[in-house]
Structure formats: C-alpha cells, structure tokens
Design goal:
single chain, about 425 residues, mainly beta, 14-stranded antiparallel barrel, two-stranded antiparallel ribbon, about 50% strand, disordered N terminus
Amino acid sequence: MTRKMKTRFAGMASLCLAAAVPGVASATEGYFAMAYGTAQRGVAGAGIAYSQDAMSAAINPASVATVGRELTLGTEIFSPRREFTVSGGAPGLLPDGTTKSGRDWFIVPNAAFNMPLANGAVVNFAAYGNGGMNTAYRDVPNANCGPASGVFCGGTAGVDLTQLFLSVGYAQKTGAFSWGVAPTVAVQRFSAKGLAPFGALSVDPANLSDRGHDMSYGIGLRAGFQYEINPQLTIGVSGQTKFKMSKFKKYAGLFENGGEFDIPATLGVGLAFRPRSDITLMLDYQRIFYSNVPAVANSTTATSPFGSKGGSGFGWDDVDVVRIGAEWQQSPDMTWRAGYAHATNPVGPEDVTFNVLAPGIVKHHLSFGGTKRLNDRDKLDFSLAYVVPQTVSGPEMTPGGPTGNTVKLRMEQFSVSVGWTRKF
C-alpha cells in the first residue's frame, strides 16, 4: 500500500470514529444494525451471496473479491422512537402512563476502501458501527418514588451503547469460489444514568450508574465465502466469532462478572438469483447469538446481584433474521432496490420492566433505495428505511415480585441514507 493510500484510509477511519462515538444508532435487529452501507440498506441488509461495493465486506468479507479499487463513504440519518406505558394503577416501580425517550435523531457514518493486489486478491478496509441500545428519559414525576422522581426514582435515566468496528480484510476469487477473512478491532462506549436506587441489588453500587462514559476494546474474526453454482445462482455463507471485550470498569456493578459485555457471534447463509441480466433477487438468513453473552442474556429476574457472576442482565434471546432483497438495473446509469427484513424479538414479556432501558424489540423492516451513476468513476447511493411499530407487554417486575401492573414497550424507526462511491 502506498503512503497516500494509507493516509487516505487513516483519515477515513478517524472521521468515522469521531462521528460514531458520540452515539451511533441504526435500524436494529436487537442492537445490531440492519445494514452498514447505503446500498445494503436499500435491500434491507441482504447480500451474503451478492457483491455491491466496498461496504459489502461488512456483510460478507468474500463479497469484495471482485469489487475492484474503490472508496465508499456513507451517512445515515436515523430516528428511533422509544416509549413505554404502565397501566394497572397499583403501587409499583415505573411511573404510570406513557413515558417517551428523548434523543430521537442520530447521524451514522460508514466508510470502506477496497484495494486489489498483484496476485488478484484484494485488501479491504472498513469502518462501521452498531448502537441500537440507547434511551434517554427525562426526570419525570413518579408517584412511586416518595420525594424522589424519575423512571427508576433516580432522576434522568437511560443507557447509551456504541460499538465501532475497524476491519482489515483479505479476499480472493478462484474460479467460481470466493473467500474472505477480516480480523476486526471493536471499540465500545457505554454510559448509564438513573439506576442508583438499584444499589442494594449490586455487588458494587459505586460502579452501577452515573459514572459517565467508559470504553471497552476487543478483537474478533469475520469470514465468509461465495460460490457461483451457475451464472444465475450464487450461494454465500458468512459469520463472525464472539468478540471477547475488556470490561467496563466504571460499570462493574451493573454488568455481569464485574463489567463484562462481549459482542455476540453471528452466522448467516444467503442466495442470490439472477432470473435475467438486469434483476437480482436475494434471500438471507442470519442468527445473532445474544444468548452467549451473559450481560445481555441473563434474566432480569436472576437471583444473583448486578455485577456478580451470573448476575442479572437484559434477558435477551437469540435473534433470527430473514432478509429478502431485489435489485433492478433500469439502465447503465440507474439502479433501483427494495427489501424486507423480519427479525425475531429478543425480549420476552417477563423481561419488559428492565428493558425500558433497551427496547430492541422491532421485527419488520421495509426499505427502498437506488444508485445513480454520475460518471465513469462516481456514483451516488440513497436509501429509505421504515421499521414498523412493535410492542411487547408483560408484568411489571420489582425485587419484591410482580406489582399487578402491565408494562408495554413500543419502538418505531425511520432512516434516510446517502452514499458516494468512487472507482480508481
């Protein structure tokens, strides 16, 4: 790699990191993003068996083996609408009625650079993020708190989780077979507010809440392959290992085992079918293994204290995602895309109370987009996504047991994305 190319990627990654860390969020499957690039969002994140641009490496590292030398930059404007409603009228924990979270708008950048090598392989650099676990509740009146106030009787409340991924991938195609690997560095940033009243339930109440942002670091591996069964049909497989992350020491009294918060493994398989030269149809299936991360998967009603081995988490189940996408090249200069994704809900009725902090419950994702070729080197991508409102209801749970009230979580999401790609 030349010095100029190294400088270009370093600047790109730094810009993405600076923009992402204040609070990444994106159309979510649990707290994983639906997709990481503008073109991929246009087909609801489908593409395990298909190649679009340099950002395709975030879906399957093998998919960029034939992309060529190019730079892709993108930005998503994302708006999640989160709220919960308590009904029943009995004394409990949460305030009666509907309480809405603030912070409804986020800017989410992404970047990737693909560089062919002399041996026919490519090296890919990509920067992208997750961050669907975010809430910000005002210091609302709460009749259950006596002289105090707030969702949990601790004033303003909420959590903010950001995950940034920086990967360096290697991909190559031999005959009909493409493969790729991408060692990936992950950076996490987290904060929590308004949870101090749970101090009696924590092994480390001084590091439970209101400690500001803390950082966590780790590394994992992403890999995949694509195989062209015939000129019309391609199959792909991709996945990532579990990322073993350093502990959030400022929140050692909140997360299981003294602040552990690892990033779950994923595994997916996809098909891309071309019934004719201008149309590509995509079908993907992916599983996100939240159950292997105790801080996320442990029940909210676990008997062990917060921060202990086996302590309470968010009670999330694994998420299964099915994505369907279609791409139509109307002309050499214009391509259109549409997609739908269905994700299972990780939050069960028994865990709704604590998940007012992380209501990652959405199921149905609809998307539309396209690409306008500007000239021989440049193209402009755009996409729109809408996540249908989803609700989950369950009993209000407290350390003393159910209160007789019902808690209903609700989330709805919108996003608009634009991207630019230049071939060299």
